[in-house]
Design goal:
The chain is α/β, with parallel strands linked by helices. About 40% of the residues lie in helices and about 25% in strands. It is built from six helices and six strands, in the order αβββαβαβαβαα. The chain has a six-stranded mixed beta sheet with strand order 3-2-1-4-5-6. The chain is globular, with a radius of gyration of 15 Å. The chain starts with a helix and ends with a helix.
Length: about 120
């Protein structure tokens, strides 16, 4: 990771997948003993500038993101946080924008036509 960050700098985004605040590994099958917040700080120490934070208990559920955990991650460092997991409505995007999230990943809600890209973009204007 250090070498990749040294070579590619801000073009690197690292994904942190978490369950109950702990890093999930092996295709989300296992939860580690490492807190996502501790991994965030380790990544910041080696120069990572952007992470994608996925709460795996929210991913694909269409019930909104884990706003509290995202806010904690966003305030804990200077790393830019892209929210993932549960983001499915314009209200979700509006709430994340209010928290100064760097970005959001919206998947299932678009695939299942629960929202539209146009509607989501309106919120960001």
């Amino acid at each position: 990771m250090k070498e990749a960050v040294s070579t590619f700098g801000d073009k690197i985004a690292v994904s942190i997948d978490a369950r109950d605040g702990y890093v999930a590994t092996d295709g989300w099958m296992d939860a580690s003993n490492l807190k996502a917040l501790d991994l965030l700080r380790q990544l910041e120490n080696i120069g990572v500038q952007t992470i994608i934070y996925t709460d795996i208990l929210k991913d694909g559920m269409l019930k909104g993101p884990n706003v509290e955990e995202l806010e904690t991650m966003n305030k804990a460092s200077e790393i830019k946080v892209i929210a993932s997991g549960g983001v499915s409505t314009a209200a979700d995007v509006r709430n994340l924008a209010a928290l100064n999230m760097y970005g959001a990943i919206i998947g299932k809600a678009l695939y299942e036509e629960k929202t539209s890209l146009e509607e989501l973009l309106e919120v960001t204007q």
